[in-house]
Amino acid sequence: METENTQIIMPEEESIDQKTKTGLIIGGIVLLVLIIGAVIFLLNSEKTPVIRDIFAILLGAELFVIGFAAVLLIIQSARLINMFQHEIKPVLDAANETMSTFRGTALFISDALVEPVVKLNGYFASIKQAVNLVKNLFK
After folding, report:
1. Is pTM, for the whole model, over 0.85?
2. What is the biggest distance separating any 2 CA atoms in the chain, rounded to whole angstroms?
3. Are 42 and 51 contacting, i.e. CB atoms less than 8 angstroms apart?
């Protein structure tokens, strides 16, 4: 009897998932070591107030930049709303009016021209059929 060797082949996704998990675990350990080292350094250092002041200044500058960006965002939003109300809305209204005029013209042409021509063609077709029927009767 022959024995079959069964090999389990891991899909490519699972190996990538395992690599990602390993990288995240190593990254988390390194980050934890850095945080513990920073806390120990800051507790035993006379430069802690200076570092705190520098971070306070950086946070203030960041707050200024965020506030400035928020003001710019509000101004741009107001300009966009103004453009919608005074530039795009009149164009849309004109397009709507044009479509209404076109709709009216199409209805008028349909009632005044197409409908009578269709009726006339219907009458001619019925006369032609009647003539063909009479011809076939006298053959």
Report:
1. no
2. 127
3. yes
pLDDT bin (cut points 50, 70, 90) of residue 137 is: confident
The DSSP-derived string for 75-117 is HHHHHHHHHIIIIIHHHHHHHHHHHHHHHHHHHHHIIIIIHHH
Amino acid letter, 48: T
Structure tokens belonging to residue 37: 């080292």
Tokens of 104: 């009216």
> How far is it, in rounded angstroms, from Cα 92 to Cα 98?
10
Q: Taking Cα atoms as reference points, which of 129, 125, 120 lies closest to residue 137?
A: 129
- Structure tokens belonging to residue 70: 């928020």
Within 13 Å, how many C-alpha atoms sit on residue 78's CB side?
A: 6
Q: How far is CA 46 from CA 39, 41, 53, in A?
A: 13, 10, 13
